[in-house]
């Protein structure tokens, strides 16, 4: 049976996996067998390929999914092949990026959190990822920060400060995953990946994501005119919604 000319596009963190965890064998099998037998299947994440492969439980993730859009699609794989990549450094230049990095480091130096670890700024091809607790935190420290943030709104206040400082600079600031903030050029949100599939003329593109509210890094693609957006709350919820739409 041939597949329908429809794409099911999934966020990774919080949608197919628990934050920074590995996908369950059950959900992985469901996507690559049940879902992929009916429609085309793709991933779009703010993370780089290494992190996506880690969470999707295998370096060969690009060969198993029809599309893998890393860093919001600024790095794209199709049919297992790296097709294209862009660079935020080339786009903005060293001077502007250093201003953002220096401001962020200064802001974080004044924050009092339950824990601070290492890797507060991560430079990626398409974005800068800012993490007040530090990306080298343990899972327990990550969860602790999330609970602390519910009360103190750490990241949203940080985003507000960044927006005020860099107003009119062509930068977007979005809550990324559970503990960080993504900084990228305007237009380089997850809708960027849609540019790469215009030539496929899909009848429908369904997007599934958890950070769909304003300020979340799924918001723009969830609301885009080219997609049918589905808000999910967990990997289990994602599976149940997909089963319903595909009558599985």
Description:
- By secondary structure, this protein is of the alpha/beta class.
- The protein folds into 2 domains: 6-86 and 189-246, 3-Layer(aba) Sandwich (Rossmann fold); 88-185, Hypothetical Protein, Haloacid Dehalogenase-like Hydrolase, Chain: A, domain 2 (2-Layer Sandwich).
- 34% of the residues lie in helices and 21% in strands.
- The protein has 9 helices and 11 strands.
- It has helices at 25-35, 49-55, 61-64, 88-92, 94-109, 139-152, 154-165, 219-222, 235-246, and strands at 6-10, 40-44, 67-70, 75-78, 81-85, 121-123, 128-130, 171-176, 180-185, 204-209, 228-231.
- The strands form 2 sheets. It has a 7-stranded mixed sheet.
- The longest helix is centred in the middle third of the chain and has 16 residues, at 94-109.
- The chain is globular, with a radius of gyration of 18 Å.
- It starts with 5 loop residues before the first strand and ends with a helix.
Instruction: Please outline the major beta sheet.
Output: 7 strands, mixed
Name given to the CATH homologous superfamily of the largest domain: HAD superfamily/HAD-like
The share of residues in helices is 25-40%
Number of helices: 9
Low-confidence stretches: none
- For the record, the CATH class of the largest domain is Alpha Beta
Q: What portion of the residues fall into strands of 2 or more residues?
A: 15-25%
Q: How many structural domains are formed by the residues?
A: 2
Shape: globular
Number of strands: 11
- SSE pattern, N- to C-terminal: EHEHHEEEHHEEHHEEEHEH
Oligomer: single chain
Overall structural class, as computed from helix and strand content, comes to alpha/beta
- Major β-sheet strand ordering: 5-4-3-2-1-10-11
CATH topology of the largest domain: Rossmann fold
Whole-angstrom Rg: 18 Å
Q: Averaging pLDDT over every residue, what do you get?
A: 95
CATH architecture of the largest domain: 3-Layer(aba) Sandwich
InterPro entries: HAD-like_sf, HAD-SF_hydro_IIB, HAD_sf, PMM, PMM_cap
Binding site for alpha-D-mannose 1-phosphate: 20, 124, 135, 142, 180, 182
Main location: cytoplasm
EC number: 5.4.2.8
């Amino acid at each position: 049976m041939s597949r329908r000319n429809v794409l099911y596009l999934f966020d990774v963190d919080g949608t197919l996996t628990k934050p920074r965890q590995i996908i369950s064998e059950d959900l992985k099998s469901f996507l690559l067998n049940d879902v992929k037998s009916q429609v085309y299947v793709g991933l779009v994440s703010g993370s780089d390929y290494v992190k996506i492969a880690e969470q999707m439980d295998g370096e060969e993730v690009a060969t198993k999914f029809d599309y893998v859009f890393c860093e919001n699609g600024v790095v794209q794989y199709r049919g297992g092949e790296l097709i294209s990549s862009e660079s935020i450094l080339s786009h903005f230049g060293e001077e502007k990026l250093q201003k953002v990095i220096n401001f962020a480091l200064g802001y974080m130096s004044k924050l009092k959190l339950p824990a601070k670890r290492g890797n507060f700024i991560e430079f990626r091809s398409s974005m800068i990822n800012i993490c007040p607790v530090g990306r080298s935190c343990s899972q327990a420290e990550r969860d602790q920060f999330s609970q602390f943030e519910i009360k103190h709104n750490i990241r949203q206040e940080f985003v507000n400060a960044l927006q005020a400082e860099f107003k009119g600079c062509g930068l977007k600031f979005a809550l990324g995953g559970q503990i960080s903030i993504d900084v990228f050029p305007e237009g380089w949100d997850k809708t960027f990946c849609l540019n790469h599939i215009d030539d496929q003329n899909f009848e429908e593109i369904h997007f599934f994501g958890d950070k769909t509210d304003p300020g979340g890094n799924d918001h723009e693609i969830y609301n885009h005119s080219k997609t049918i957006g589905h808000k999910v709350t967990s990997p289990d919820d994602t599976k149940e919604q997909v089963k319903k739409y595909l009558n599985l």
